[in-house]
Amino acid sequence: MSPETLMMLAAPISNESGPGIFLRIVLIAAVVGVVLLAWAIARASRNNHR
Questions:
Q1: What percentage of residues in the chain have a pLDDT greater than 70?
Q2: Residue 15: pLDDT above 80?
Q3: Scanning 7, 10, 30, 34, which has its CA 20 to 30 A from the CA of 45?
Q4: What is the Cα–Cα distance from 44 to 23, expressed in whole angstroms?
Q5: With b meaning 16 or more CB within 10 Å and e meaning fewer, what string describes 21-50?
Q6: Phi and psi angles of residue 13, each rounded to the nearest 5 degrees, phi first
């Protein structure tokens, strides 16, 4: 998906100029995903050491 397509999809969501709240939602989702991935990897490595 191109950035232009994402901007067109984000246009109705945001009243401000630029991506605005859509970009914040994407960044928060990315951070949550990284935290969950790190937790899953830590849990898997802990289980392998038993």
A1: 66
A2: no
A3: 30
A4: 31
A5: ebeeeeeeeeeeeeeeeeeeeeeeeeeeee
A6: -75, -35
Residue 22 near residue 12, CB atoms below 8 Å:
no
3-state secondary structure of 14: coil
Say how far apart CA 37 and CA 3 lie, in whole Å.
25
Angle at 35 between CA 33 and CA 41, to 5 degrees: 100
CA pair distance 4, 31, nearest whole angstrom:
23
pTM: 0.54
Higher pLDDT, 21 or 41: 41
Q: Which residue intervals of the chain are DSSP H helices?
A: 3-10, 21-48
